[in-house]
Amino acid sequence: MSSKTRRSDTHMASPPRIAAVVIALLHACKVIKADPDTTLQYKICNGDASTTFAYKDSVKDLLQDIVDKTSSSGFYNYYSESMEFLTKTCYGHGACNGHLSHPDCDACLSAAKQKILELCKLSVGAQVQLTDCRIRYEDYFFQEN
User: Fold this and answer.
1) Which end of the chain is more exposed for a tag (fewer CB within 10 A), N or C?
2) Any idea what DSSP says for residue 30?
3) What distance lies between CA 29 and its chain's CA centroid?
């Protein structure tokens, strides 16, 4: 074997090292995809059951707007409002973990919306925090930190 052959052999990267570099590059480019974690962390429901049907419809519209628009807004952070016919306005906020893809953010918020509708049916305001996203709505204006 010539010394030329030996020299090129000593400069070859080992397969484990190449694999580590490829994995690091894929991770850096966010090519590795996983489902969002939709484990319920907490829920808060305002127990006021005096909401009208129109307000409940406004809440449903608001929640759908949050699901539809949060992932395309800057920083996965979206505020919205929906008005009941001439009377009451509901305000909402949706946010996703910034490492989620747009479709995963949408999927997580859809799960959060379903949890709110299931767990806080007659609430004037509610919050649901899943591991990778959260939704909140209230009958008053608010801002999240």
Assistant:
1) C
2) T
3) 19
DSSP state for residue 11 in the 8-state scheme: H
The answer to whether 128 touches 119, Cβ cutoff 8 Å, is yes
- Residues β-bridged to residue 11: none
Alpha carbons 145 and 136: distance in angstroms, whole number = 13
Look up residue 68 and give its two tokens: 């539809």
Q: Please, what's the b/e burial string for 87-102 (b: 16 or more CB within 10 A of its CB; e: otherwise)?
A: eeebbbbbbbbeebee
Q: Which of 74, 46, 73 is nearest to 59 (CA)?
A: 46
The pLDDT tens digits for 122-142 are: 789 999 999 999 999 998 899
The sign one gets for the Cα dihedral 131, 66, 59, 87 is positive
Distance CA 67, CA 112 (A): 9
pTM of the model: 0.73
C-alpha span between 127 and 59 (Å, rounded) = 12
List 95's β-bridge partners, or say none: 77, 134
- Give tens-digit pLDDT for 96-131: 999 999 999 999 999 999 999 999 987 899 999 999
